[in-house]
């Protein structure tokens, strides 16, 4: 083989490197905090990095709230349900259009999920369907114990409307803000509106601790209770004494070190994700079959964790969501359909659902686009080329 051929093959391999949906980026400061955990010999759950990470987050979110660092966002949702007193046979309302981690903890508690549809403006829980669901469940003899509302893809749900309804019926809101760190509603950070709020630092989120999450609450005593349950529910005694079920949910001191390093570039990551959103906006502006999702309400600021579109099927032109996804896949670019609604999942299909199939409509058309913090210009060019070829734009 000639030198030229080898270079060409290497070149092709490099140009075709997979573009992932949502890669996080290291700040370079993580090592310093991990090193400190090793030097302190705090290689366990809890510890100085965990305390510092909680402080930095509290400072960033709202000084009046309390932050408990845990080993995942899912654990945080589970603990929130426990703290809300959700038990066997209780009903919990949950936004249907979400990731399964919002709903699974309801089943951990032996409780019953009641799924509610989305509205088209934010794609999140619909106030009308929510109120119908609450009234119907009450008329059937059970008032829901909690409402799980989600800021999907970083886009705030209709906070005022949802919380007004929740207050009217005196039902606490569990705010799943796993995808929305840095998003705001009327200038206030997402995650701080509910009785409990949840963030996730899974590898694909806007910042990562490899795996991790936090529970946000309104009092020191709820934080203490969360730590109690998260560290095996040890009663006050010299020996190991337990009167309640315990969990091993506390964040590792090493992971918290990664989180401290990541917090140093959170603002940059949000700017980068929003910049990618503008990049897609410019591309899709004049394409009839595409509805490009953007926040339209001035009260809402999105971190645009993932940029999303709806593809309106056009049989004559052979255009639909799946054909576009495959065009990206052929260029080694990862795109994914938006979350499949929970009430359509085999696991959850027998539970009650209230709505008008908006979530289903969105699921049939919705596609998540590569949105990782810091796509290179070359990667953006590759994405643009696929879209222009697909829609036959010269
Ligand atoms: C990621 C995610 C979670 C769960 O967080 P983990 O840290 O992965 O357990 C919960 N809800 C939503 C909407 C998410 O996207």
UniProtKB/TrEMBL annotation:
Alphabetized, the UniProt keywords read: Aminotransferase, Pyridoxal phosphate, Transferase
Q: Which residues form the active site?
A: 205 (proton acceptor)
Is tRNA processing among the key words of this record? no
Say if the entry is tagged with keyword Cell membrane.
no
Instruction: Give the modified residues of type N6-(pyridoxal phosphate)lysine.
Output: 205
Quote the InterPro entries the UniProt record gives.
Answer: DegT/StrS_aminotransferase (IPR000653), PyrdxlP-dep_Trfase (IPR015424), PyrdxlP-dep_Trfase_major (IPR015421), PyrdxlP-dep_Trfase_small (IPR015422)
One Pfam family of this protein, by short name?
DegT_DnrJ_EryC1
Q: Which GO terms describe its molecular function?
A: pyridoxal phosphate binding; transaminase activity
Sorted alphabetically, which PANTHER family does this protein's record hold? DTDP-4-AMINO-4,6-DIDEOXYGALACTOSE TRANSAMINASE (PTHR30244:SF34), TRANSAMINASE (PTHR30244)
Q: Please identify the protein, giving its name as recorded.
A: Pyridoxal phosphate-dependent aminotransferase
Q: What is the lineage of its organism?
A: Bacteria, Pseudomonadati, Bacteroidota, Flavobacteriia, Flavobacteriales
């Amino acid at each position: 083989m000639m030198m030229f051929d080898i270079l060409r093959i290497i070149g092709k391999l490099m140009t075709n490197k997979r573009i992932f949906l949502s890669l996080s980026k290291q700040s370079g400061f993580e090592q310093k905090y991990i090193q400190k955990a090793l030097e302190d010999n705090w290689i366990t759950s809890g510890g100085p990095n965990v305390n510092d990470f909680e402080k930095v987050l509290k400072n960033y979110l709202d000084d009046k709230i309390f932050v408990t660092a845990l080993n995942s966002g899912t654990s945080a949702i589970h603990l929130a349900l426990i703290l809300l007193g959700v038990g066997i046979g209780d009903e919990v309302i949950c936004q249907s259009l979400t990731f399964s981690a919002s709903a699974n903890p309801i089943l951990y508690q032996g409780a019953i999920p009641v799924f509610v549809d989305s509205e088209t403006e934010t794609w999140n829980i619909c106030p009308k369907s929510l109120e119908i669901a609450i009234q119907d469940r009450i008329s059937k003899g059970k008032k829901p114990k909690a409402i799980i509302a989600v800021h999907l893809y970083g886009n705030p749900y209709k906070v005022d409307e949802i919380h007004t309804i929740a207050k009217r019926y005196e039902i606490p809101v569990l705010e799943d803000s796993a995808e929305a760190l840095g998003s705001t509603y009327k200038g206030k950070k997402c995650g701080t509106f509910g009785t409990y709020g949840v963030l996730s630092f899974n590898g694909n989120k806007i910042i990562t601790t490899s795996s991790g999450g936090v529970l946000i609450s309104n009092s020191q005593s709820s934080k203490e209770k969360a730590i109690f349950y998260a560290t095996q529910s040890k009663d006050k005694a010299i020996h190991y004494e337990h009167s309640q079920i315990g969990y091993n949910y506390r964040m590792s001191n090493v992971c918290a070190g990664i989180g401290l390093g990541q917090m140093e570039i959170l603002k940059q990551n949000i700017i980068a994700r929003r910049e990618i959103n503008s990049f897609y906006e410019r591309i899709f502006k004049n394409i009839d079959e595409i509805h490009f999702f953007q926040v339209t309400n001035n009260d809402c600021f999105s971190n645009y964790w993932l940029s999303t579109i709806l593809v309106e099927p056009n049989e004559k032109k052979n255009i639909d969501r799946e054909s576009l996804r495959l065009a990206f896949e052929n260029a080694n670019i990862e795109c994914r359909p938006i979350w499949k609604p929970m009430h359509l999942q085999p696991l959850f299909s027998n539970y009650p659902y209230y709505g008008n199939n908006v979530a289903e409509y969105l699921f049939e058309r919705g596609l998540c686009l590569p949105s990782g913090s810091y796509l290179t210009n070359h990667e953006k060019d590759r994405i643009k080329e696929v879209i222009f070829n697909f829609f036959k734009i010269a």
